[in-house]
């Protein structure tokens, strides 16, 4: 933070007042994450634009490519609370949301919040838990609250879920239901690093791990203000209509197409992309960049010959920008 920051009750206030300020904060966060993560600049940007768009992220890939470390690096770049949940077959919904415990002194039940009560929640290998446990996140991701024994409890603001998914041991995992997939703004894959990137990663991590020295470079107030700046980015009617036509194209060319929630997600992500570029308005290029990671996991095709990603690519090639 800069020397101009003021402190109220020991907490630094944000100096983010417009898109340019928000862009500067985001640039610091991206640079900070890259102190730990090598060779995934575009994926880091996608996570940041999802944060700006008030979305959740699903990281899907083989083990050992840095999914969990990427989530931790992003979380540590902000001065917020971070909780990690290791999803396992015996994990219960109450292990995620929390539970009411009887207090003998007061002769009443006290709510003990679970790990979901944090600004950034990492759900590690989320598809290892059965659907009943996975569903514990549905209300939290959509409504920013959890309900236990009929009583609702608000989650911290901001609240973001970054989940990882194991794609190798299919016989030991559970498929995520579409209702849950649709609540993730983006689904990203990291892939293996190239030769130079992998060697540089070894140079950084063979001894002392750089994440142990990673400091936050932005406050929660910075993130809230940057989100407000993104929400204020102008989206012209022509851009909104373009997203509608893209969504309708996927519905015509797939068994299950993009939902209205998916269309809204791509618009919010595009607003975040505009902030990343220092613009106060969304352009079609923002939509096209974000649609590539916002749309595919919401689509189901009836044949193996056509993949969801191919449907999105065809939509971007066929639907005109008017």
Report the radius of gyration as a whole number of Å.
Answer: 20 Å
* β-sheet strand percentage: 15-25%
Structural class by SSE content? alpha/beta
The strands making up the biggest β-sheet line up spatially as 4-7-10-3-11
Low-confidence stretches: 1-11
Report the total helices. 13
| Mean pLDDT over the residues | 86
Keywords: ATP-binding, Nucleotide-binding
Domain AAA+ ATPase: 53-194
Pfam family, one: AAA_3
Protein name: AAA family ATPase
Helix and strand topology:
Elements: E1 7-8, E2 11-12, H1 19-33, H2 41-52, E3 57-61, H3 67-76, E4 82-86, H4 93-97, E5 98-103, E6 108-113, E7 120-124, H5 131-134, H6 138-143, E8 145-148, E9 151-154, E10 160-166, H7 178-181, E11 186-188, H8 195-205, H9 220-231, H10 237-252, H11 260-276, H12 284-294, H13 308-318
Parallel strand pairs: 3-10, 3-11, 4-7, 7-10
Antiparallel strand pairs: 1-2, 5-6, 8-9
Overall description:
Keywords: ATP-binding, Nucleotide-binding. Residues 53-194 form the AAA+ ATPase domain. One of its GO terms (molecular function) is ATP binding. It comes from Halosimplex aquaticum. The protein is an alpha/beta fold. It has 2 domains: 14-226, Rossmann fold, CATH 3.40.50; 234-318, Magnesium chelatase subunit I, C-Terminal domain (Helicase, Ruva Protein, domain 3). The protein contains 13 helices and 11 strands. It has helices at 19-33, 41-52, 67-76, 93-97, 131-134, 138-143, 178-181, 195-205, 220-231, 237-252, 260-276, 284-294, 308-318, and strands at 7-8, 11-12, 57-61, 82-86, 98-103, 108-113, 120-124, 145-148, 151-154, 160-166, 186-188. A hairpin with a 2-residue loop joins strand 8 and strand 9. The longest helix is centred in the last third of the chain and has 17 residues, at 260-276. The radius of gyration is 20 Å and the shape is globular. The relative contact order is 0.16.
